[in-house]
Design goal:
Keywords: Membrane, Transmembrane, Transmembrane helix
Membrane topology: Multi-pass membrane protein
Number of domains: 1
Helix content: over 70%
Strand content: under 5%
CATH topology: Four Helix Bundle (Hemerythrin (Met), subunit A)
Distance between the termini: 12 Å
Order of helices and strands: HHHHH
Number of helices: 5
Subcellular location: Membrane
CATH superfamily: Membrane associated eicosanoid/glutathione metabolism-like domain
Largest sheet: none
InterPro entries: MAPEG, MAPEG-like_dom_sf, Membr-assoc_MAPEG
Protein name: Membrane-associated proteins in eicosanoid and glutathione metabolism
CATH architecture: Up-down Bundle
Length: about 150
């Protein structure tokens, strides 16, 4: 049986992973609020074209729902990359995920509040994209190191 040795500072990785729960909770609250304002009943996932044509609130609901769904699509790979990278460099892994979350908050606000093009604002470009790339490269290199070490 092998033993996993968690590096010093891995608690930062745990905190960064946990912060995604708060991001999702905030997005959930936004979706719920926009659903109520648009009058979109459950279990309907999105407002249809007719509802969007007659209600700006329906379009806003769709954007809130889409940004939440998009975040859920990213999280599995982000979790894996953050943990793998965190095994070799926990502070940089946690910082990268934290910056991605900051960028995702800006993306969410920009997407929901205004036209869809607002989602790619300066904070998103500066935070989310470089941090995601850092996680990809860091996780790949960490995995290589673990395989090379025979762990």
């Amino acid at each position: 049986m092998s033993t996993i040795i968690v590096p010093t500072g891995f608690s930062y990785v745990a905190a960064a992973l946990m912060s995604t729960v708060f991001l999702l909770a905030g997005q959930f609250v936004t979706v719920s609020k926009q659903r109520a304002l648009a009058g979109i009943a459950y279990p309907q996932l999105y407002a249809d074209k007719e509802q969007m044509a007659t209600s700006p609130a329906a379009a806003k609901f769709n954007r809130a729902q889409r940004v939440h769904q998009n975040t859920l699509e990213y999280l599995p790979s982000l979790y894996v990359m953050t943990v793998l990278f965190g095994l070799k460099n926990p502070v940089l892994a946690a910082s990268s995920l934290g910056l991605w979350i900051l960028g995702r908050v800006a993306y969410s606000v920009g997407y929901v509040v205004g036209p869809p093009d607002n989602r790619n604002n300066i904070v998103t470009v500066i935070c989310a994209t470089p941090s995601f790339l850092t996680l990809i490269v860091g996780a790949t290199y960490s995995t290589y190191q673990l395989v090379a070490a025979g762990v």
